[in-house]
Amino acid sequence: MDEVFNKEDEVICALVTTPDENALEILKIFKPRHIFLAMEGRRLAAKAATLGEVRICTYLPWEIPPGFKASGPLTFLEICANRPVLVV
Questions:
Q1: Which tens digits make up the pLDDT trace of 34-54?
Q2: Is the pTM of this model over 0.70?
């Protein structure tokens, strides 16, 4: 945990691929501005919505819950290029 509290670079983006709710606690520590939920991480959408700007990584529009934005790989790269990215 020391690495978490001694971080030097601001985490702008987080990519969440796990449905494990412990990922939400990690997001609370790092406070990323942009949260991308991919694969199984999409199950955390409702609970992650209060933690930052949440985007659902999918190309299937019917998988986007109301109130969320869709995101593909290019959007992720445009927003997160050359910045620290937290992957959970």
A1: 999 999 999 999 999 999 889
A2: yes
Q: Compute the mean pLDDT over every residue in the chain, rounded to the nearest whole number.
A: 86
Q: Which backbone phi and psi does 15 adopt, to 5 degrees?
A: -115, 115
Helix or strand or coil: residue 19?
A: coil
Q: Which residues lie below 8 Å from residue 76, measured CB to CB, with a gap of 6+?
A: 13, 15, 36, 57
d(CA 78, CA 81): 6
Q: How far apart are CA 64 and CA 67, in angstroms?
A: 8
Task: Please choose, from the candidates 19, 55, 17, the residue with its C-alpha nearest in 3D space to the C-alpha of residue 34.
Answer: 55
pLDDT per position as a tens digit, 4-13: 555 556 778 9
- Return the C-alpha torsion angle 61, 82, 3, 39, nearest 10: 20
Whole-angstrom distance between the N-terminal and C-terminal Cα of the chain? 15
